[in-house]
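All the exercises in this workshop are built on plain-text protein records. A learned vocabulary of local backbone shapes supplies the integers on the structure line. Once this layout is familiar, the rest of the handout is easier to follow. An example says more than a description, so a record of this kind follows:
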Amino acid sequence: MARMERIRADAPDLKAAIRNNYDAIASRYDWVLGAWEWVGLRQLRKHLLSHARGRVLEIGVGTGRNLPLYPPGLELHAVDFSPPMLERAERRATRLGLSVQFREMDAEQLAFPDAHFDTVVCTLVTCTFPHPDQALREMRRVVRPDGRVLLLEHGYSNRPWLRRLQEWRADRQFEWLGCRWDREPHLIAREAGLEPEVHRRYLFGVVHVMALRPQGP
């Protein structure tokens, strides 16, 4: 059974260190996020997911917290790199009576063809990717040219006092789940070839909600 260990930014295999801690916390993950869900995250998720259409890929499905929030009539696919997280998501889908195709997969190397999905969803996960630009380029690759990437992520606040606090606590935050809250997700998305159609900030400017469209070649 996995045990949580302090994550070091210079770990020889950073991705494996992050995966280990998600494996270890899978049984408690919903409880850990519970308070944040009730102060507004659940409503933000629900509003974002209401724009999902057609064949949908969710990256970093975790324990499946988004599953009950999708509109009906979608073809759902979901990936995560943590087997214990996927097991919990599969059980949640069964309880909800949802048909979801689950696969263990690395977000930075998606095993799907180009332009395969109408919608790609990623919520509160890119903060843990060692190379978020690569993961977002993969999202751009697998979404149709007329599709959308729906992203909910936390990053730097646009409030100077809170940004300073984030900078002060960034290393301690990272040591727990490899989570970086000292990033600019909207700028990383642009660099990866995804143009924000909608970009709004919530919760003191920390939470970014974006609908992104793939830019041309």
Summary: The chain has a mean pLDDT of 92. The first strand starts at residue 55 and ends at 59.
